[in-house]
From TrEMBL:
InterPro entries: MFS_trans_sf (IPR036259). It comes from Nonomuraea deserti. The chain crosses the membrane at residues 26-44, 51-72. Keywords: Membrane, Transmembrane, Transmembrane helix. This is MFS transporter.
Amino acid sequence: MPIPAAVALGEVPADDAGAGSGVVNTAIQLGTALGIAVVGVIFFSPAGGGFGAATATTLWCNAAFFCAAALASPLLPGHRVREPGQAVL
C-alpha cells in the first residue's frame, strides 16, 4: 500500500504527517473490512446452487471489482516533482 499512502499524504504538511498517516491507515483498515463484508454478502447471498456456485459468483465479482479498480487507476493524481531541498515524506 505504499503508493496510495504516498498519494494521499503527498499534500499533507510535515507538521501534520502523524495525523495524516493515521487517517490513511484508518481508511485502509475500513476499506479492507468493508471489502471483506461485501465479499461475504455476495458469497452467502441466497442465490442457491451450493458452495460451487457461491464460489464462482464471488470470484467473478472479485474479478469485476479488480478490473474496475484497474480502469479507475489512471484517475489518481499524477506524480509530483520535488523541489530541490524539499523534505521527502
